[in-house]
Amino acid sequence: MRAELIADIGNADISTELALSGRDVQASAEVRLREAGVVCGCFVAEEAFRQLSGESRCVVHVPEGSMQPAGTSLLTIEGPAQAILSAERVALNYLQRMSGIATLGRQWADIARPAGIRITGTRKTTPGFRMFEKYAIRCGTGFNHRMDLDHAVMLKDNHFAASPHGDWEELVRSVRARISHTMKLEAEADSLAMLEPLLRGGADIILLDNFSPDEVREAVAIIAGRAIVEVSGGVTLANLSDYLVVGVDVISTGTLSHSYRSLDIGLDFTSGGH
Questions:
Q1: Mind listing the pLDDT tens digit of every residue in the chain (274 residues)?
Q2: This prediction's pTM
Q3: Inter-residue contact 99 to 41 (CB < 8 Å)
Q4: Domain 112-258 in the same topology as domain 2-108+261-271
Q5: Does the active-site annotation cover 156?
Q6: How do beta strands 57-60 and 26-33 pair?
Q7: What homologous superfamily does CATH list for 2-108+261-271?
Q8: Is residue 188 among the annotated active site residues?
Q9: 118 in active site
Q10: How is residue 152 annotated by DSSP?
Q11: 8 Å CB contact between 83 and 55
Q12: Which of 209, 215, 218, 249 is catalytic?
């Protein structure tokens, strides 16, 4: 947050300094939704204003993660006008993006939830923005995938390609034997032929990578409850309903953190000049 403010302001907010002519102006402003969506990140916006001035006072008007109509007042800020003006863009950047992610996540989750399937994001996140994106995904969907590489073992196609072990089953079994009993092991399958070897090796979770809906049904029948089933790759909001297969536990998608649209949110002064 601090780094973003420093980068945005540069050496000085020249426009604000010239407009206020060095005067100590107290003001108030309101942040409003300009379109309906899931609100996420008001506390982050609040922190942006607070970091530029300890005199800034914010009041948040809506619950985090709640769906709100266009025109809703999200928060009000009172304090030095210079701090409000200088922090405005950074505060809105965080709030708009986090709310956009949460809104998209809610759309996915609303479709999948009746089928008992969790929607999660992936590690396809924006450098430097991961924790905010992960939090926003959780606000929208209720769940997250692993936060980082030490959160769980996840053997993907390139692990199998790079490993000196001779086959899929041997690699999974070898890794399984060397990790804590409290850690899950997920293994990616890109074909039906991989399923039995991965299961015999002891995979807790099988990720079906770029399977068609019909292939997912076949895979679920083969796995037969012996592992958690995750579907990833090729799933979009438009075809999500086709992947709501009985036996699928999780659908993960990078869309939530790399293809979302920022929510339209604006800040307007309600008083100032005194």
A1: 889 999 999 999 999 999 998 788 999 999 999 999 999 999 999 999 999 999 999 999 999 999 999 999 999 999 999 999 999 999 999 999 999 999 999 999 999 999 999 999 999 999 999 999 999 999 999 999 998 999 999 999 999 999 887 799 999 999 999 999 999 999 999 999 999 999 999 999 999 999 999 999 999 999 999 999 999 999 999 999 999 999 999 999 999 999 999 999 999 999 875 5
A2: 0.94
A3: yes
A4: no
A5: yes
A6: unpaired
A7: Quinolinate phosphoribosyl transferase, N-terminal domain (3.90.1170.20)
A8: yes
A9: no
A10: S
A11: yes
A12: 209
The active-site residue out of 8, 64, 78, 89 is 89
Q: Which helix (H) or strand (E) holds 88?
A: helix 81-112
Does 124 participate in catalysis according to the annotation?
yes
Q: Which residues of 165-203 are buried (b: 16+ CB within 10 A; e: fewer)?
A: beebbebbbebbeeeeeeeebbbbbeeeebbebbbebbb
Structure token digits, residue 216: 């997912």
Q: Is 223 within 8 Å of 198 (Cβ atoms)?
A: no
Catalytic hit among 2, 23, 156, 261: 156
Tell me which residue has tokens 């001779």. Answer: 166
- Domain ranges within the chain, ordered by starting residue: 2-108+261-271, 112-258
The CATH class for the domain spanning 112-258 reads: alpha beta
What pLDDT is recorded for position 274?
53
